[in-house]
Design goal:
The protein is α/β, with parallel strands linked by helices. About 40% of the residues lie in helices and about 25% in strands.
Length: about 300
């Protein structure tokens, strides 16, 4: 296996076409096809499925290409640093379910280390994409929750992808809603009281399984439910429709504003907040520092 073969495979994946990739690489299509065929035979994996519309990356190919991209990135950095003597920024990326505290911790990290020496990225996204981003090395770590309902399902996916879940802290379940909602003044809220208001839930796309839901009690029988794609829309619906969502109870008013509050849900259910990482890959210095920022919220759990 050579770096050239890795570059060819990644270019095909990016172009989604062998013909387009051959043009970009300034080689003939038969030569490119033969190179990929040799690579597939060497690693005993089928990377691409050919079709009339181009190519489709196989599941095994997705995993292989994640490592290939990482290898090419490292080679490029070595070449720039030691051959071209180009100064470069170290990269750090996080993927997370829609948690304000994860964003706030990221902000503190960026302030602490500065953005002149480091290139930061944060992806607030769907549960499966959090897992996929860590699996393919797009992010060093991902923030999500587990509970009694989804733990076996999520744990199996992590094991199958050589990932691991590191526990940070446990949380009770809270109802997150606007302060002008009549339930906001209560000391504790029952599920029955929530039925007259729309439940707000983050859309999970093609992986819209109950196990991937970002909200606990995803299988409950909700009379009204609205799916949303982003946190800003969810906050607007809390004010406009008196909607609510279920959460950890960790409030970040600096980012979300003071118009919202969290009220304990009358349940014995809990959720475990943690991060996922590559099983055989230790955290970088920035990764360790980010985890330390996250652990500060352990004392802020309501």
């Amino acid at each position: 296996m050579t770096l050239q073969q890795l570059k060819y495979a990644v270019t095909i994946a990016d172009c989604k076409s062998i013909n387009k990739a051959a043009t970009e690489l300034y080689i003939t299509q038969p030569s490119l096809s033969n190179t990929i065929k040799d690579l597939e035979e060497e690693i005993h994996l089928k990377l691409f499925q050919r079709s009339n519309r181009g190519i489709i990356i196989t599941p095994e190919g997705e995993e292989f290409l994640g490592y290939a991209r990482q290898m090419l990135d490292h080679y490029r950095l070595i070449e720039e640093r030691f051959v071209d003597n180009v100064a470069f920024k170290k990269k750090f990326s996080v993927s997370t379910q829609h948690y304000t505290f994860a964003v706030e911790a990221f902000i503190e990290l960026a302030r602490k280390f500065g953005m002149e020496e480091y290139e930061f990225a944060i992806h607030e996204t769907k549960t499966k994409e959090v897992i996929d981003n860590v699996r393919t090395h797009k992010s060093e770590l991902g923030i999500l929750y587990q509970n009694e309902f989804n733990e076996r399902f999520i744990s199996k996916i992590l094991r199958d992808n050589e990932l691991e879940f590191i526990h940070l802290f446990d949380c009770a379940i809270y109802v997150y809603l606007a302060k002008d909602n009549p339930l906001a003044q209560k000391a504790r809220v029952d599920m029955e009281e929530l039925q007259q208001y729309p439940c707000l839930s983050f859309e999970q796309g093609d992986s819209n399984s109950f196990y991937f839901a970002e909200e606990v009690l995803s299988t409950a029988d909700y009379r009204q439910i609205i799916k949303v794609d982003d946190r800003s829309t969810m906050l607007n619906l809390m004010k406009g429709l008196k909607g609510y969502t279920l959460c950890s109870g960790i409030i970040c008013q600096k980012l979300n504003g003071e118009e919202y509050t969290a009220v304990p849900l009358n349940t014995t259910e809990t959720m475990a907040i943690g991060y996922i990482k590559q099983k055989k890959r230790p955290l970088s210095h920035l990764g360790q520092s980010y985890v330390k920022e996250l652990l500060k919220y352990r004392d802020k759990v309501l």
